[in-house]
């Protein structure tokens, strides 16, 4: 176990390392989640992450509306 001067130096080094990690790691969870939602329903404007989910949503929520062209191949 380090004592005295070694302990102080180690604490300073770890504090600097943690500050660098925190500074470089400034990501926002809401922005990342929003970026993952790439498909937008043409009827109700709700957002979906992939075409499979979008197709399921469209078939269950908007059965009378015609299927969009982007979903016909999915």
From TrEMBL:
<feature type="compositionally biased region" description="Polar residues">
    <location>
        <begin position="1"/>
        <end position="13"/>
    </location>
</feature>
<dbReference type="InterPro" id="IPR045230">
    <property type="entry name" value="MBS1/2-like"/>
</dbReference>
<dbReference type="Pfam" id="PF04419">
    <property type="entry name" value="SERF-like_N"/>
</dbReference>
<feature type="compositionally biased region" description="Basic and acidic residues">
    <location>
        <begin position="14"/>
        <end position="31"/>
    </location>
</feature>
<feature type="region of interest" description="Disordered">
    <location>
        <begin position="52"/>
        <end position="74"/>
    </location>
</feature>
<dbReference type="GO" id="GO:0005634">
    <property type="term" value="C:nucleus"/>
</dbReference>
<dbReference type="InterPro" id="IPR026939">
    <property type="entry name" value="ZNF706/At2g23090_sf"/>
</dbReference>
<feature type="domain" description="Small EDRK-rich factor-like N-terminal">
    <location>
        <begin position="1"/>
        <end position="37"/>
    </location>
</feature>
<feature type="compositionally biased region" description="Basic and acidic residues">
    <location>
        <begin position="52"/>
        <end position="62"/>
    </location>
</feature>
<feature type="region of interest" description="Disordered">
    <location>
        <begin position="1"/>
        <end position="32"/>
    </location>
</feature>
<keyword id="KW-0539">Nucleus</keyword>
<keyword id="KW-0963">Cytoplasm</keyword>
<dbReference type="GO" id="GO:0005737">
    <property type="term" value="C:cytoplasm"/>
</dbReference>
<dbReference type="InterPro" id="IPR007513">
    <property type="entry name" value="SERF-like_N"/>
</dbReference>
<protein>
    <recommendedName>
        <fullName>Small EDRK-rich factor-like N-terminal domain-containing protein</fullName>
    </recommendedName>
</protein>
């Amino acid at each position: 176990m380090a004592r005295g001067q070694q302990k102080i130096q180690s604490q300073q080094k770890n504090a600097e390392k943690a500050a660098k990690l925190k500074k470089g790691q400034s990501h926002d969870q809401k922005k990342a989640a929003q970026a993952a939602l790439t498909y937008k329903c043409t009827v109700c404007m709700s957002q979906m992450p992939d075409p499979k989910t979008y197709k399921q949503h469209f078939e269950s929520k908007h059965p009378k509306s015609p299927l969009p062209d982007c979903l016909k191949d999915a």
